[in-house]
């Protein structure tokens, strides 16, 4: 997300106009769910280091 937030305003406005920001944010949130999915699927207590 840091890289997305660091993009120039003109790019953000372009992507907003193309309706790309919603899917980008949704994908980012989805990627954040992989730790929990791994834990549930494997029965592990935590993600291995």
What do you see in this structure?
The chain has a domain at 8-40. The protein is mainly alpha-helical. The longest helix is centred in the middle third of the chain and has 11 residues, at 21-31. The protein has helices spanning 2-5, 9-17, 21-31, 34-42. Helices cover 67% and strands 0% of the residues.
Could you give a quick summary of the protein structure above?
The chain is mainly alpha-helical.
Regions with pLDDT < 50 over 5+ consecutive residues?
none
The total of beta strands comes to 0
The average pLDDT score comes to: 90
Count the DSSP helices: 4
Order of helices and strands: HHHH
Assembly annotation: single chain
**N-to-C terminal Cα separation, in Å?**
22 Å
Gyration radius (Cα, Å) is: 16 Å
Strand content: under 5%
């Amino acid at each position: 997300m840091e890289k997305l937030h660091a993009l120039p305003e003109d790019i953000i406005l372009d992507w907003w106009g193309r309706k790309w920001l919603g899917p980008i944010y949704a994908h980012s949130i989805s990627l954040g769910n992989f730790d929990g999915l791994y834990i549930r699927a494997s029965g592990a207590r935590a993600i291995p280091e």
